[in-house]
Amino acid sequence: MLAAVESCYRLALCVDAGIGLYWFNLGVAVEDQGRVSEAIAAYEHAIACDPALADAHWNLARLLELVGRRTADELVLRRAVRHLVRYRDLARAG
What we know:
Layout: H1 2-15, H2 20-32, H3 36-49, H4 54-67, H5 70-93
């Protein structure tokens, strides 16, 4: 099942590689298959395409901590928290 999901997102990226949500969902699919380095790369692509994707920041920070890349994970985690706070504020206003 996860392989099929991964294939769908890879096809979607062939159509438009500039959509951050496609990269994010690909990251989730490959992470769920245990391919952490590919997931990190996908989350980084997602953030490059759409810096406001809070979940991509969060997942990236979590994986960077998991693999021990502590030089960047604190900055990524701070960005994730900032975006999550912004989403919470929007939900309250809406």
